[in-house]
Design a protein that fits this description.
The chain is mostly helical. It has one domain (5-89). Helices cover 87% and strands 0% of the residues. The longest helix has 53 residues, at 37-89. The chain is rod-shaped and about 85 Å long.
Length: 90
């Protein structure tokens, strides 16, 4: 199995944001009484940065696979044109 650093960053980012969401829900309910707004926003920003890194990497992967598909399609079209030209000559 290939180690993917960006996938781990994405998972960590999602976990941080889920933790912030749970923390805020507990704060609203009244279970937690102490809250530092700066720490909550910092955690949210860090989680978003990690997750954005993962999404950026995923978009790059999609673009690479799209280019490969286009290259394959182009080569198949070239082969078909060559075959058609051969048949026209006959």
């Amino acid at each position: 199995m290939k180690f993917d650093f960006y996938k781990i960053l994405g998972i960590v980012g999602l976990l941080i944001m889920a933790g912030v969401a749970i923390y805020l829900i507990l704060k609203i309910i009244g279970v937690i009484h102490s809250a530092s707004v700066e720490e909550v926003f910092l955690a949210l920003v860090v989680g978003q940065v990690f997750y954005s890194g993962y999404t950026f990497r995923a978009i790059q992967g999609i673009e690479k696979s799209t280019k490969r598909t286009e290259e394959r399609t182009d080569s198949i079209e070239c082969r078909l044109l060559k075959i058609e030209k051969r048949e026209e000559v006959k």
